[in-house]
Amino acid sequence: MTSGLVHHKELNLDGIKIFYREAGPRDAPVILLPHGYPCSSYEFRNYMPPLADRWRLIAPDFPGCGYSDTPEEFDYTFDGYTDFLERFTAKLGLSKFTLYLHDFGSQIGLRFAISRPDSIASLIIQNGDIYEDVLGPKYSTLKAIWEKNPENSFAEIRQGISKEEFQREFLNDVRPELAAAIAPDLWMLHWSLMTDRRKDISAHIIAGLKDNLDWFPRYQSYLRDHRPPTLIIWGPQDGYMPEASARAYLRDLPDAELHFLDGGHWLLETNLDEAVSLTRNFLIRHG
How far apart are the C-alpha atoms of 38 and 160, rounded to whole Å? Predict the structure, then answer.
């Protein structure tokens, strides 16, 4: 399998410096890779090279994340990030692509897909939750916080944003031998990029997940109505999004290709070769 170089780039998007990673031929079919929390495009650093022989892969850092700017005037909500993706893809002239949906990137990506359904060639879904009845047990803590008044809820979430919590987020519920394969670079790097402003932004986004639940039926309706070709690769060792969260997609996408890997929420760290092989085989047929 041929590997390609990942190029690290910046662009000016309406006065905001946006960092992104890109690999593959400019005229190849595109895979758009919105990242999850508390990560950045760094999560795709190893996934991109082995697919770059045949596809153009693009992974931006959202404003307030990774190496992108943290402008004061940006709308740090799911709607704001969706608008960012629309402007980012327009700036690069991307009109049709496979969309990778992971973590909170799945919420943003599906809002984007709803607004631009003709742009979606296919979906790759990896540990992204849109079915409230099958959320994992780790959500119970968040739900308890959401029941408090907004000021207390925000304060509790904000206090919990720490290097130790980042480590717990990245390790999640994977068994010990898999946890040992997840490099501490993930939480050490991303914690080093946090500022007080970014901590505030993260707390607001996490608090906003409560209202985002109201969007779940809309996401499901989009999938049911449009039926894009879909690959689901899932790490069930995930306290937020267990096996049932993956199987729920088959309610609206009965023809989706579903694979469970021996991993967790950040399976590209532990199951990279399998994820790449499944992606390649799927996109050769549907990309």
Answer: 13
pLDDT at 4: 87
DSSP codes joined into one string, 119-163: GEEEEEEES----GGG--TTHHHHHHHHTS-HHHHHHHHHHT-SH
Query: Which CATH homologous superfamily contains domain 6-138+215-286?
Result: Alpha/Beta hydrolase fold, catalytic domain (3.40.50.1820)
Question: Taking a C-beta distance cutoff of 8 angstroms, is the pair 80, 208 a contact?
Answer: no
Sign of the Cα torsion 74, 114, 119, 285 reads positive
Residue 224 neighbours by CB distance under 10 Å: 12
Indicate if the pLDDT at residue 3 is higher than 90.
no
- Total Cβ atoms within 10 A of residue 150: 10
Q: Is the pLDDT of residue 286 over 90?
A: no
pLDDT in tens, 139-151: 999 999 999 988 9
Give me the count of residues in the chain: 287
How far apart are the C-alpha atoms of 227 and 274, rounded to whole Å? 25
Surface-to-core class of residue 137, CB atoms within 10 Å of its CB (0-12 exposed, 13-18 middle, 19+ buried): exposed
- CA–CA gap between residue 55 and residue 249 (Å, rounded): 26
Q: Rounded to whole angstroms, how far apart are CA atoms 6 and 24? A: 8
Distance from C-alpha of 147 to C-alpha of 142, rounded to nearest angstrom:
9
Dump pLDDT digits (tens) for 64-112: 999 999 999 999 999 999 999 999 999 999 999 999 999 999 999 999 9
CA 213 to chain centre: 17
